[in-house]
Design goal:
By secondary structure, the chain is an alpha/beta fold. The chain contains two helices and twelve strands; from the N terminus they run E-H-E-H-E-E-E-E-E-E-E-E-E-E. This is Phosphoesterase.
């Protein structure tokens, strides 16, 4: 199964639509969002085309293929415009490998979750990367709308045991296998 993983849309209708387009172009079967969907947060500038209701419209159209992990900028009121639930964390299995997913406000490469399995994927920091910490593949999908530290607007594709970080034009930036 091909899964697209992204984070930190922060209310940008432009990047939500671009993400939906990348989801279709990738031919992915599932879309996992790792939080900070609608609100820009007090430390971030307003992203391009800030329109939380527009983001909801784009994402609600994908509800049957969507899993959304709650981020630190997501609130209970966000569920009122969403046709989907927000979960605190998620675990998926692919080809016998366990992948732990969380926004990144509680865990990071420096503080891995207990028993996270073979891989830990998160967002929150807006800086995309794929690295190893001990025997665990650790990845940050970056931010679709507000990347930091000179990193690209990005997302990830998980296909089988291969994880690939891509820019919003679909160009591979990094890749590794569990």
């Amino acid at each position: 199964m091909k899964i697209l993983i992204a984070s930190d849309i922060h209310g940008s209708r432009y990047y939500a639509q671009k993400l939906a387009e990348r989801f279709a172009a990738e031919g992915a079967e599932q879309l996992i969002l790792l939080g900070d969907i609608y609100n820009h947060g007090p430390r971030n500038p307003l992203p391009k085309d800030y329109d939380p209701m527009g983001v909801a419209s784009v994402l609600n159209a994908l509800v049957s293929k969507l899993t959304v992990v709650k981020g630190n900028c997501d609130s209970d009121v966000d569920t009122l415009i969403s046709d989907f639930e927000f979960v605190s964390e998620a675990v998926i299995f692919t080809e016998g490998k366990k992948v732990f997913l969380q926004h990144g406000d509680r865990f990071s490469i420096d503080k891995l979750p207990k028993n996270c399995g073979d891989a830990f994927i998160y967002g929150h920091y807006h800086t995309g990367f794929i690295r190893r910490a001990g025997g665990v593949l650790v990845a940050n999908c970056g931010s679709t709308s507000l990347p930091k530290e000179g990193t690209a607007h990005s997302y990830m594709v998980l296909e089988g045991r291969r994880l690939t970080l891509k820019d919003m034009d679909g160009n591979a930036l990094a890749s590794d296998e569990m």
